[in-house]
Amino acid sequence: MQEIQVHNRDFLERPNDRLQRDGTRLAVARGTSGPEFFSYEAVEALFKDARIRPKTAEVYLDMGLSKDSPIYEFLQNGNFNMMPVPDHDRLRPLILKGFRPKRIKDFTAQIAAITEGLVTSLRSRGSCDVIADFSHHVSIRSIASFIGVPESDVHHFEDATVELILLGTVPFMPGVPRLEAALRKIFAYIETLIADRKANPRDDFISDLISTAAEDEMTEAELIWCIVFILLAGHDTTRYQIASTTRGIIESGTWEAIAADPALIPKAVSEAHRMYPAAYRFPRLVLEEFEHGGITFKPNDLLSLSLVGAGRDPERFPNPDRFDLTREGQGFAIGFGHGAHHCIGWALATTELTEAIRSLTRHLTDVRIEGEIEYKVGGVIAGPEKMTISFKARN
Amino acid sequence: MTTLAFYRNGALLQELPIKPGQTVMEIATRNSIPGIIAECGGAMACATCHVHVSADDQAHFEEQDESELDMLDGVDHYFEGQSRLSCQLALIGRPERISISIPEEQ
Q1: Which of A32, A152, A361, B87 could bridge B25 with an S-S bond, Cβ 3.0-4.6 Å?
Q2: Smallest CA–CA separation between A185 and chain B, in Å?
Q3: How far apart are CA B103 and CA B106, in angstroms?
Q4: Is the minimum CB–CB distance between A93 and chain B shorter than 8 Å?
């Protein structure tokens, strides 16, 4: 089997340059976590396959992580992808209740207020860094406010929440001290916040979860680590995805069309997700022997599902490298995962993306990307870390 | 304890207990009830946990939201006033028995 290196910007921006050769497309290659599948059909089928699951905390022990590490505690108690199945099945429904669509709908105006406030402050500047000046703040303020963290407290942990990328970085062990420090910092903050909410309950997500935890045998450690996970998962990926959506719109020349017709925004969000998914691959652990694509997998083998490969599959998306607002069909239905591990926060993230683009296109015109986009590439998450744009304020 | 009775094609499949706050989807998927697929694991990102519930029995669950109706728009076997996504059917109170009918296909 061919080997492939997917953890680099060239591959993530133009996967078909590597996958498409001589009229055929590479369906599977050996990557850093076993065979990596690139076709939409295979990724969709494997997402549904109960004989595989996300990696477990034990995989990290095998890489040298200590059981005393806060990373292990986090993976076991708060990370919905990697915690043991019985705990996942017990805790996920409790968290899902907090992400009810009605709750997100009711919160849309607050997200819009965040995006409008940020873009209004940028209007007269003429240029900005989309991540440092905008998407970083949209995503951390939105997720923090949604769960009940005061905006004035965000500075306590906003640098730590972007360290989650280290969890998937290859090799893993060099990043352990930084990730442990980040997790300790967020844990300490959330522990204090929960103590405060227990003494002074409010009408918010955290207070609801505290009361649910008391009724449903959720331990204190699970309560804290679950909230840590929500903050981590809700920050990094969304800040990248907002930047990539902005980029896709600028590069495709569709900015003014979207400004004139905001009904196009959902299509733009979907196209950017398909072409530049922030969570670009999903490693999986084999639970029982099975065969796929001519490869036999045995228990404890690893494999990977490439979302960036699936999103550019010409069999599913004709002319896949084109950002196309007229593209028909179901769209990138697997963009937030699938099945028991489907992203809990997909509706919140989609609302943030929608309101971010609505504000940017409403207030800014003549928008251009200036200079090189700087990428940050982790093992499973990647996206623009710095993207300067120039613009004029729209009258 | 409330009993959930799952039916398909008019035949009783299984009776299972449900507690207040739990959803019908949770109970169905944990017990491998056929016909409730729940591709998105209860995040309301698909409509593959579609069920039919009488208006009387719906009174024991949280009210249907507009976004749930949007998600149900165009699904097969849609019945106005009865179609619900089972991931959104979180039990309120402690009725004795509730009947859930699963469509022939999702």
Answers
A1: B87
A2: 29
A3: 7
A4: yes
- Cite the DSSP H helix spans in chain A: 9-13, 15-19, 40-47, 57-62, 70-77, 85-98, 101-122, 136-147, 176-199, 205-215, 220-252, 255-260, 265-275, 307-311, 346-363
If you count residue pairs, one on A and one on B, with CB atoms under 8 Å apart, how many are there? 54
**Which secondary structure element, helix H or strand E, spans residue A382, and what is its range?**
strand A382-393
CA triple A292-A293-A299, angle to 5 deg? 30
pLDDT digits 0-9 by tens, A293-334: 999 999 999 999 999 999 999 999 999 999 999 998 878 989
- Classify burial at A369, counting beta carbons within 10 Å of its beta carbon; exposed 0-12, middle 13-18, buried 19 or more: middle
Nearest to A138 by CA among A116, A109, A170: A116
| CA separation for the pair A332, A317 (Å, rounded) | 9
Chain B: give the shortest CA distance to residue A95, in Å.
Answer: 10
- pLDDT tens profile B81-95: 999 999 999 999 899
Structure tokens at A93: 């429904």
CB contact under 8 A, A342 and B43: yes
- Which of B21, B23, B65 faces A102 most closely, judged by CB atoms? B65
On whether any CB of chain A is under 8 Å from the CB of B86, the answer is: no
Task: Name the minimum distance, in Å, from the CA of B65 to any CA of chain A.
Answer: 7
Interface predicted TM-score (ipTM) of this complex, two decimals: 0.71
